[in-house]
Amino acid sequence: MSHPNPHIDKVSILGSETIALGFHIFDYLLRDTLTHFKASTYVVVTDVNLQKLYLDRFQTAFHKISEEVSSASGSALPRLLTYVIPPGEESKSRAVKAEIEDYFLAQGCTRDTLVFAMGGGVIGDLVGFVAATFMRGVPFVQIPTTLLAMVDSSIGGKTAIDTPQAKNPIGAFWQPKRIFIDLSMLETLPEREFVNGMAEVIKTAAIWNQDDFVLLENGAEAIRDAVLKPVRNVEFQGATLDSRTPAQQLLLQVVMASVAVKSYVVTHDERETGMRGLLNFGHSIGHAIEGLVTPKLLHGECVAIGMIKEAEIARHCGFLSQVAVGRLTRCIQAYGLPVTMEDKFVKNYIGNQYCSVDQLMQVLRVDKKNMGSQKRIVMLSGIGQTLEQKPSNISDDIIRKVLAAATVVHPRPINLPPVTLSPPGSKSISNRALVLAALGQGTCRLTGLLHSDDTQVMLTALTKLGAATFEWENNGDTLVVHGNGGKMQIPDSELYLGNAGTAARFLTTVSVLVPPSSIPGQKTILTGNARMKQRPIAPLVEALTANGSELKYMESKGCLPLEVTPFSHGLAGGEIQLAASISSQYVSSILLCAPYATKEPVTLVLTGGQVISQPYIDMTIAMMKSFGVEVEALPNNTYRIPQGSYVNPAEYLVEADASSATYPLAIAAITGTTCTVPNIGSASLQGDAGFAVNVLRPMGCTVVQTATSTTVTGPAIGTLRPLPHIDMTTMTDAFLTASVLAAVSQPSTPGGENVTKISGIANQRVKECNRIAAMMHELGKFGVTTSEFDDGIIVHGHDIASLTPPKDGVKCYDDHRVAMSFSVLANVVPGGTIIREKKCVEKTWPMWWDDLESKLGGRATDVDLGAPSEHHDYEVKSSSSRRPSLGCCAKSNATIVVIGMRGAGKTSMGRFAAKTLGRPFEDVDQYFEKTLGTTIPDFIKEHGWPAFREQEAKMLVELLEKYPTSHVISCGGGIVETASSRDAFKKYIARGGIVLHLVRSIDEIEAYLNKDTTRPMYGESMRDVWARREGWYRECCNFEFVVAGQHLKGIEAEDAKEWALVESNFARYLRVVTGTKKSSLKGPAGSKPTFFLSLTFPDITPVLPQLPELVAGSDVIELRVDLLKVPESFSGSFRDHVAQQVSLLRRHSDLPILYTVRSISQGGQWPDKDINGMVSLLKDGLEWGVEYLDIEIGLPRADIDEVLSRRGQTLIVASFHDCKGSIRWNSDAMEAQYKLAQSISPDVVKLIGTAKTFKDNFECAEFTARHSAKDEDLPLIALNMGAQGQLSRVLNNFLTPVTHELMPVKAAPGQLTANEILIARQTIGL
Ligand SMILES: NC(=O)c1ccc[n+]([C@@H]2O[C@H](COP(=O)([O-])OP(=O)(O)OC[C@H]3O[C@@H](n4cnc5c(N)ncnc54)[C@H](O)[C@@H]3O)[C@@H](O)[C@H]2O)c1
Ligand SMILES: [Zn+2]
Description:
This protein is an alpha/beta fold. It is built from 43 helices and 49 strands. 39% of the residues lie in helices and 17% in strands.
């Protein structure tokens, strides 16, 4: 195909249109240059990467076009020279500049030369500088090929080179004659370089133009795809408007917008005196970071983090609203850029390097923009606008405070006057209020709105639908909604809803109201991100379709994207049936839009038995009433909604998030002052709204509550009363707040009981972290005594004056509620309390620290604790932490009860287990139906869910009594939801039973269940169900099998091979679980030596292909759990990672697994302090059915016993390592270690010394000989570490640890390979 004439867009700079943009524009740019800038010699300078990709094409085009132009004008053919330099910043040097100049001179280049700089910013800066000084300046043309060069470095005429001391100190202003931006060249750019450039694009929109920013916000996916997954249906795609994809057009539009801003600024401030400084937004702090981490992070990546930090400074100063900070953050993240130094992305590149606040301030001190020592930073005052037309003066204190990762909260000054504070709004109410006010008539001022992803998406979508116009007042505190009374139009592009679930559900019905436009065939399209495209919407779509609307699934059935056909009748009305056992959001969606039904009033009939989340439906109805529409509730879950339009109240106060409201109220309680929360009161439907009355009042506070406000006055400091027992079932999230108050309670009579017992909060073990464990741990650091029980926590009150703030601060476990609760306590703790990871409050209250100071009168300062230490923190993170042992070891013939999520494969795996073990199979559900002569759905319809669950528990108990041994029983997924069932499992385990939890990754389960349309869908997301049940499953099982079917989509059907593999692994696992121990592990004397290979990888996944080669010659594989690290790409916890490693190992090798968690003092990496974590992991290893488990005999005996109480059929290796080499083999001390090891009745003893002399090896061999003779059946591994000790490795005969040439590191100093040992043995005649 011949090259089409490309479509060109132009931007003018310094008064002329010299910037041209398009796709595939080589021919165009050459024709333009050769025609307008005649020269005898043209030189293109580029780098090696671009040479490979583009130079041939450029040369061919040059020769074609130069002939064309010369023959047309009758002039001589010009020559083309090319010069290629190595890529990278190092080339921007004096040396390379000189090299290029020498080449030009050697080629006889004169003033009559034009230079093309084809490349990224490096080429542009360097070649531009060459052109500026060669022959006192020759013309040059920029062909920027990176996004950064296109929008930034090629524009403005700044050219420069680096010196060893600094970046860009030598250069000149030299304007290019032309800048040709060929966007198709971005398609070959590495992803990271493209994303890097996006930082500048976002920056420009953020300071300049809200509309451009909105394009970026909504277009992230399309823009990334345009570059990273380009469509190539035709040659030269995008060159002409006909062949240009919408994504390409959008890309062009955003790049051009950025180019235009930079050009405008350059034009008005060419030599950088004022306005040009604005382009440095994000660059003050960005450069400071860059100064410390170059070249590990790229410029744009540092600027991205810098933008957020500088926006946070603006927010802290009160210039910028949280809405804007939130939008900026989300937008930056949407393109794959980091927003903090703690991002996994950043850690990936800079490793453990820590940039301290002092270091950053040091670099900031020399920032070009400063005036003297005064720091100057660009302050945003909104999206698309800045506070001043130049950078603003900012004090060091403020910068430090924002940069610090931790904060110190000091005691609050006493006797502060009453304060009023509106916590962030409730998310459910915010979303409803937005829809109501938009559909309503007139203007409504919404205050207290939550600023979140969801509400942002909702706002943007309602704007695009023309449902209303919005403006912010009071620095983002008030949203003014001018409602259009239900009138809307089809948006000119699709509604992109990200992953905002509520918005998707509500807007589906809203879109049905939209009438046809004058353009025939135009439709409304609702879409979202990949995750959104899996979330269900079918019941709502079905109900609307049945009512005469037309909604089409554009990709997968039952999910977004949806195409909504407009009808002039909008929503028809009449009776609408809706399955309401799934999600109350469907119900609310129809309720909210129902008044706008055109033909007749809506009667909404909720079908499907139990209605889920009635309080949310009540909330919708109550709010509709506030907007003038009264819903009539009829019997049988039926609602009648009158036709009409909402009438907007002048003001609407969005109710606070009730859990958040507990913090300011608790501060009043603990400091003996008064605080009013004006946006939550007795009328609230949120459970946590009961906190003031049910917790604070009995503790001695005065609580005054109206329907919509709450005022709390605390008693004098130090006189809060303990609560002997408080059930917080209805407000579980508030237990953390209650716990810190209980920590400072005092009994009303001296010497009285000072204990608060909080129950009903077991679910808090499986929240962001194990919150009960976290509170116990952190309160303990202050000297507060606590304990836990099944269902809650017990807190002993403590005298305030003697509370001690922890030296290294409160650890927040990345949990916002932990952070905010301890900041409440900190208001009275003497001396100032450090709260680490202060950023975690962003999940629900991003401005908490600002509000604490500016609105609540608290005092906070910054602190830099240095790099966070590398600790696993296993104990609190994991919900399985220190579960008390459930009793005796499992009996090998015990009936195996299989539990787990639906979709994990319980039935298939259960049947398989039954078959392999030759046992009968039972299924609780089938037994239920058989025994009661009904189907489960019928039973539920008739008696409800609670009755079903109780009955299910009974069936379980019956089955276990009937078949205590030699059976396999599979249970329904929800069985653990019932306390009596959980009890039955625990009792069964205590009797020696086997409860096996089948685990499959939630992603896989979702994929599998979504495919299977015959199963009814869950009312809540699978993830939520898992989050709730995970802890219960763990609590109820004593074995766990992880189905590691990486690519396993369907259980039965197409993945037969995968499935066969899973089955054979399961069979092996079952052998460990039910197997009988071998009587002797050792072969007869003189048999060949055996080896185990130590795997020292942080993650074995990448080495699985080499595993067969690695383990060749070994008899056992050791998994060094202490060396594992959760990889970047893995979303689960550390425990999940370990579980996966075990199952992957089992899947890829038949060799038995030796599972080891080696402590630091024993030569490993596991922190010695973290005994709890180690014990948990060891117990997990037993649950995962490993063949061998290593236990360090140095652990406290109680902990060893706890592990051993579960040993089942796993072989135990009792180990001891003398890393310092302080114990001789022939000493009593070594004998004592042997005895100690023996005392735990292990299956193998492993004693490791450190050789100081060669002789130690013989002493070691003698030790072995002595004990082997005595304890024939107890195999002993005995050898020496260190180079001197290698002989002992050769002499040891049983399970010698070995390494392999392919291993990254040896597991121990002096380790040999199996091959080396075998050769050595041969050499010495063994
Ligand atoms: N003059 C200014 O106003 C200004 C402004 C900002 C930055 N800069 C300078 O820009 C430089 C950084 O520029 P950069 O980020 O473009 O880096 P770069 O020039 O080093 O290019 C990045 C990498 O991408 C490769 N590459 C470029 N285009 C490609 C393409 N189309 N396909 C495949 N690979 C491609 C390059 O070979 C290089 O390896 C710095 O030296 C900085 O000082 C100058
Ligand atoms: Zn920059």
